[in-house]
Amino acid sequence: MEDFTCPRCDQSVSAEFYGPCPTCVDDLRATVGGQARTVETAAYEPKMNVTPNAVALKD
């Protein structure tokens, strides 16, 4: 356990890793955190200016 000051509220904290204190973590999760969601993306389509088998068609 390391003793350091919280980078957010400048209070003394004893924790394994450097970062915000547990109070600040709870506050950040309540104000900034959001729900995880699935993002739909379009299917990959190659550019039309590139021939897929350009090497095979080379004379």
Span from first to last CA?
Answer: 69 Å
Strand order in the sheet with the most strands: 1-2
- Sequence of secondary-structure elements: EEH
Kindly report the average pLDDT value.
Answer: 85
Number of H- or I-type helical stretches? 1
Helix content range of the residues, please?
10-25%
- Work out the number of β strands: 2
Can you summarize the main beta sheet? 2 strands, antiparallel
Question: What is the element layout, followed by pairings?
Answer:
Elements: E1 2-5, E2 12-15, H1 22-31
Antiparallel strand pairs: 1-2
Description of the molecule:
This protein has 59 residues and is of the alpha+beta class. It has a domain at 2-31. It is built from 1 helix and 2 strands; from the N terminus they run ββα. The chain has one helix spanning 22-31, and strands at residues 2-5, 12-15. Strands 1-2 form a two-stranded antiparallel ribbon. The chain is elongated and about 70 Å long. It starts with a strand and ends in a 28-residue tail after the last helix.
List keywords for this structure.
59 residues; alpha+beta; two-stranded antiparallel ribbon
In summary, what is this structure?
This protein has 59 residues and is an alpha+beta fold.
